[in-house]
């Protein structure tokens, strides 16, 4: 929208002096019919180049089709730490027993650990190596249509029920070990008779 479209008698008429800053204020500008809402930012001219300008020409499509610049991985020599386990084993095999002998053996037989990360710095890929995780085996559609998985599950449940019944029968047929409580319940102790106090000279008469 321009200043002429915001003049008197137009759809976007404004009261007072029409200024250029009105076209840059989103709170004042009105939405136009059939057009998207403006963000009040002016675009550069047709001579403007978006992005970074490349001064050197790379040959275009013919160069890309006929020649492909491939960067070769440079082998990176990694300094591995010393392998004291292997050197100590070798020193013992040679008959070293003193600290000085071990130090001399470490000096002349300097052994370093092997770099196991052969694929980290442009190493050769071993033959037959597969990257990534193995794919899941495909689901047999024929078994799904025949409800084979349901039948297998029902067979497992039946076998589980049979095992539970056998275990339950073994628990029922087994003899229960008696303890003092069950023994006293089956064979209660004799009840003591109540006896009142009497004089000793009347004891014989009461017994008679």
TrEMBL record:
It holds the Pfam family CFAP77. InterPro entries: CFAP77. It comes from the Eukaryota. This is Cilia- and flagella-associated protein 77. The lineage of its organism: Eukaryota, Metazoa, Chordata, Craniata, Vertebrata.
């Amino acid at each position: 929208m321009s200043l002429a479209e915001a003049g008197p008698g137009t759809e976007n008429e404004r009261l007072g002096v029409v200024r250029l800053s009105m076209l840059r204020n989103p709170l004042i500008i009105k939405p136009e019919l059939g057009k998207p809402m403006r963000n009040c930012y002016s675009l550069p001219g047709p001579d403007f180049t978006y992005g970074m300008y490349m001064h050197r020409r790379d040959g275009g499509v013919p160069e890309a089709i006929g020649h492909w610049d491939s960067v070769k991985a440079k082998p990176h020599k990694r300094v591995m730490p010393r392998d004291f386990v292997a050197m100590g084993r070798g020193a013992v095999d040679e008959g070293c027993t003193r600290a000085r002998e071990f130090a001399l053996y470490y000096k002349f037989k300097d052994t370093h650990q092997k770099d196991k990360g052969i694929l980290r710095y442009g190493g050769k890929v071993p033959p037959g190596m597969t990257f990534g995780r193995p794919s899941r085996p495909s689901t047999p559609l024929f078994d799904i249509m025949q409800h084979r998985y349901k039948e297998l599950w029902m067979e497992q449940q039946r076998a589980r029920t049979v095992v539970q019944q056998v275990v339950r029968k073994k628990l029922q047929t087994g003899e229960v070990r008696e303890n003092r409580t069950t023994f006293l319940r089956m064979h209660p102790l004799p009840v003591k008779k109540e006896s009142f106090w009497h004089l000793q000279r009347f004891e014989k008469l009461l017994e008679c």
